[in-house]
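User: My advisor asked me to double-check a structure prediction for Chromo domain-containing protein before group meeting. I don't want to rely on an old file, so could you generate it fresh from this sequence?
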Amino acid sequence: MAEFSYNNKEQSSTKETPFMVNVGRHPRTGFDLRRQGNHPAAADFADRMKLQHEETQAALKKAQDDMRRYADRGRGEVVKYKVGDKILLATQDLQIQGRPTRKLTEKFIGPYTVKKIISPNAVELDLPRSIQIHPVVNVSRIVMYREQVEGQGSKPAPAVEIEGEQEWEVEKILNAKWFRGKKRYLVRWKGYTAEADSWEPEENLANAKELITEFHQLYGELNRIHHVLRDTGFQERELPNRSTAKTLFGWDDKQFDAEYLKKLERNWRTWRS
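Assistant: Sure, here is a fresh prediction for Chromo domain-containing protein from the sequence you gave:
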């Protein structure tokens, strides 16, 4: 029944059901038949099947919504660019004439002008010849350029020297994930806005070991609590009472603090801001 419900549900990518894509029609189901019969058991079966189908569809939608919500947690606010915008280009994986190593290169260079909008995820830039890449780039590699106004804000922090090599100073660690067998961290760079946040492997963060440890301590406990709340039916932002929390988290009276969850949530929101 779960497989049938999935194949009979419109997919966001195609706007069609898998049944329609594969065979060109929707299947007939027992509860689609409107003919009246004389067998109560058959009618009862059709009603049960219809209810099961509706419940499965609802469960599938909830699963999709949950996956979308968790995926969106690691994404920043989407920036919509337009022709004429001034942007900065990330130097990661970029070879620049006169700067042979990335360690000695700014994190962003520019500003350059958006020449054409290719899609919501790609733009064409007006680049100089010294930038030897295709002018069409993914928007994940650019950030909006904002001219520095005297007396407003601060300039990006300069690179610091760690064991003879230059690295940019990390302000905070926002998230972590595994990518191709390596752990990567979402980094907020000191002196830069959220638009410049980037995923970095641990070897690029030699000057941020304490921040990484602090992140794991806070994130690990908060993530554990969220999973327990979710698995036991609590809403994501709902807090259990004292007796329930003691049972869920295995806390004794000395460990339990009625404000503990609220403190974690407040710290997490502050950390991510």
